[in-house]
Specification:
Elements lengths: L14 H5 L8 E5 L20 H14 L3 E3 L20 H10 L5 E7 L5 H14 L4 E6 L4 H7 L6 H19 L4 E5 L4 E6 L11 E4 L4 H10 L2 E3 L7 H17 L5 E10 L3 H14 L3 H10 L4 H4 L1 H11 L6 E5 L1 H13 L4 E5 L3 H18 L8
The structure holds flavin mononucleotide.
The site of flavin mononucleotide has 15 residues, from α7.
Length: 384
Amino acid sequence: MNLPAAASEHSRVSMRDRMAMYNDNVLKIGLFGSNCSSGRAVTRVPERWSGNWEDNLALARMADDAGIDFILPVGRWKGYGGDTDYMGTTLETITWATGLLAHTKRLIAFGTVHAPLFHPLIAAKQFVTADQVSGGRFGLNVVVGWNEDEFQMFGVTQREHEQRYDYAQEWLDAVKLAWGPKDDFDYDGRFLKLKNVRAKPKPYGGSRPLIMNAGASPAGRAFAIRNCDAFFTQASLTSIEETAGRVKAAKDDAAAQGRELDVYAVGVVTCRPTQKEAEEYYNYATIENADWSAVDGILGKKNISPATVGEEEFQKQRHHYAHGLGGLLMVGDPDRIAGQLADLSRAGLRGIGFSFVNYLKELPYFCDEVLPRLERLGIRQKRA
Ligand SMILES: Cc1cc2nc3c(=O)[nH]c(=O)nc-3n(C[C@H](O)[C@H](O)[C@H](O)COP(=O)(O)O)c2cc1C
């Protein structure tokens, strides 16, 4: 494998190659959220992530050289306010991915795309373009929408929850038709009516981009099982058995529909030479210097307040959201972080997408110290 950068125009790329991200790493490692200001750390510390293009480009090149497998953006149109306007400055994800793919050789870059906001035929062509630019390294994260005020910005009314996934199904069916073998087709759905469509060219190498989704509701999970190659779900470090059960259930449900599905999680990493240093930095950045007014903005959009959930739960949720919209919290020295990743791999997870407070400053230490430990444990290939 390892073919996309050097692949010729006529190379075939199988879905299995795409799902393996063109390498033999048992546990895939990616970066999550770097296209947004502050990434996933709702913090006021001065070293918080800029999210600007120069830093994203430097990060993607560094990650590509270090053998990181993927980079996954957040699709966000409006920030959460607070002292820092958390996630207030964001790069659009399809163009961001295309730019990064043009400057890298190996990693997969996802676009995170709101199905209700993008016309499926325009979107399908954008995905094909990104896929061609990169020799088959574009991936699609389909999202149906989270925040009401983002939709108001576009003059689009959010559908009722279940219907969002009904619409997304038609949207994705139309995208897949545009990617498929037929150049000409009609699509007559409940929501979408597309006549005399012509869709050329097709994705790179005779297959199609990886598709992922992170739906948490029964409708969202069912959408992932029916359509996706990768499903991002919640994982637990305190109960690896519970994580293993979740992974197995999702894979079994997909297999029952004749489909192969890989299961992923997201996490927030603070890795330092000693456990004490890691905990001190975590407390400094995420507790003492949290942008609490932005955290309250996130909670407000989710209708989580002392009045709706009670004071105790509200305080719990405040701490949970201080490190950016959830995910596994991993704070420790390299041995601890590598051990936790090995546990997650044993639970059957195919990969994990991380964020750091400052991705560019923290990634080198992670790559120098944690990746070799994972190589010795046999869950990552030796880097060249
Ligand atoms: C890894 C991950 C990435 C996500 N990215 C986005 C995003 O960028 N934009 C967005 O609106 N929602 C995003 N979501 C939200 C999910 O797509 C989904 O809407 C959410 O988990 C709630 O599930 P539900 O839609 O089934 O209710 C993400 C969730 C996760 C866990």
